[in-house]
Amino acid sequence: MTATRARAACLIGWPAAHSRSPLIHHYWLRTLGIEGGYSIEAVPPEGFAEFVLHLSAHGFVGANVTIPHKERALELSVPDARARAAGAANTLWYANGALRSTNTDIEGFIDNLDASTPGWDRIEDALVLGAGGSARGVVFGLIERGIRRVHLANRTMERTEGLADQFGARVCPVAWDAIGDLLPRAGLVVNATSLGMHGQPALDLDVGRLPRHAVVADLVYVPLQTPLLAAARARGLKTADGLGMLLHQAVRGFELWFGQRPEVTAELRALVEADLTKV
Ligand code: NAP
């Protein structure tokens, strides 16, 4: 009799930072009754290629990849359009014998907006703040969804221009000190900077100048309620938070590895919220 081995996936990082991914995937394995595993694997940069190219021999059907390996993961796999656009891969799996990769932050961001603020996409102008790795994914997701104009502002203007060059005419670069002028027509504002994180200054934005129907999204999830989200809520605006994005970005990996599409439930959110507020 051959024993069937339970499927297992992992998160590869260095150092193996404290991550919420095991909590999320273990919750779904448990609630869906799937026999499987999800572990954290601390792999240094010099060992990453060997580990990833023999992922299956190491016992894994796929993996999440985090700092500092996301760009290398892209090079070592067959990336989809999202991973290529983001310039980084965070999810690996096997298909037809090949190691494939994608970047699930993009759908995490968009799916969270759909779940938290349905109808958000009936807008002409979005304003994205930041030009780092996550801003790149946000811009790609908004363009893919058909948003007509994505105004982009970043403290370092060269990075804004670099992103605008990559994405073409639908991305309009804005100087950091001219953000205020755009607020009255922004139907969606996205904070993709690290401002508002614990230990960082708040993002200084006058939400009073936004239209009444505007949606405010923040990628930062520590703290859960950033000063930006608090100000937007106090003004009665709709919001989408960083924890929602984190939960939604995990869905696709689970589905690829374990064959069932899991749901982001209120119970899962409460579980991860409790873990985040412990720290
Ligand atoms: P990153 O590549 O390091 O980019 C950081 C961005 O923040 C850059 O645009 C940087 O501007 C800007 N910034 C930093 N300090 C600033 C300051 N004092 N004033 C103005 N701008 C400042 O980081 P990332 O990976 O894109 O992540 C950005 C944030 O998103 C982080 O808080 C991260 O935790 C969060 N995130 C959340 C999720 C989720 O699932 N919720 C997923 C990914 C990322 P310069 O170019 O001028 O330096």
Brief overview, please?
This protein is an alpha/beta fold and 279 residues long. The chain has eleven helices and twelve strands. The radius of gyration is 19 Å and the shape is globular.
Question: What are the main properties of this structure?
Answer:
single chain, 279 residues, alpha/beta, six-stranded mixed sheet, six-stranded parallel sheet, binds NADP nicotinamide-adenine-dinucleotide phosphate
What does this protein look like?
The protein is of the alpha/beta class and about 280 residues long. It has eleven helices and twelve strands. The chain has helices at about 20-30, 45-55, 70-75, 80-85, 105-115, 135-145, 155-165, 180, 225-235, 240-260, 265-279; strands spanning about 5-15, 35-40, 60-65, 80, 90-95, 100, 125-130, 150-155, 170-175, 190, 215-220, 240. Strand 8, helix 7 and strand 9 (about 170-175) form a beta-alpha-beta unit. Helix 5 (about 105-115) packs across helix 10 (about 240-260). The mean pLDDT is about 95.
Q: Write down the secondary-structure element order.
A: EHEHEHEHEEHEHEHEHEEHEHH
Walk across the major sheet and give the strand order.
2-1-3-5-6-4
Mean pLDDT: 95
Question: Which molecules are bound besides the chains?
Answer: NADP nicotinamide-adenine-dinucleotide phosphate
Major beta-sheet overview: 6 strands, mixed
Compute the number of helices.
11
Poorly predicted runs of 5 or more residues: none
Beta-sheet strand percentage?
15-25%
How many strands appear in the DSSP assignment?
12
Instruction: Report the principal-axis shape.
Output: globular
Distance between the termini: 47 Å
Share of helix, binned: 25-40%
SS content category? alpha/beta
Radius of gyration: 19 Å
